[in-house]
Write a structure and sequence with these properties.
Blueprint (H helix, E strand, L loop, with lengths): L3 H41 L3 H11 L8 H26 L1 H23 L7
Length: 123
């Protein structure tokens, strides 16, 4: 018979899989209902301008990511990584230092990509 300490990793992995499947299922059904509603409105709409207005209202309200937000995100991630590294060097050990270094390099890569490939230029 397995002890509780042997079952904890199994429950952790199962919880991760269940949460991921639940989120993807929820997003699928949410987008499906939007598509069905848009199709119904398109069939009943008489004015094309009215249809365009309805489509615009159903679009995602979040604006497209711009160059400033990429720079900001990269800088925040860089300093979170530095903080994790310092926490590992002062208290928790080499594994936490490695995680902090990884996060810092990811932040530096995002920041560098925002400077090298700016998004505000038109092709």
């Amino acid at each position: 018979m397995a002890t509780v300490t042997e079952l904890i990793p199994i429950f952790g992995i199962a919880a991760g899989v269940i949460i991921a499947v639940a989120v993807f299922t929820w997003l699928y059904f949410e987008s499906r209902h939007k598509r069905d509603a848009l199709l119904e409105l398109a069939q009943r709409a008489e004015n094309p301008e009215q249809l365009a207005e309805i489509v615009k209202s159903l679009e995602d309200p979040h604006p497209a990511s711009d160059d400033k937000s990429a720079k900001r995100s990269g800088l925040i991630t860089l300093f979170v990584g530095v903080g994790i590294y310092l926490l590992g060097s002062m208290a928790l050990g080499a594994v936490v230092q490695a995680v902090g270094t990884l996060v810092a390099f990811i932040g530096a890569g995002v920041l560098l990509a925002a400077f090298i490939f700016p998004r505000d230029r038109q092709p």
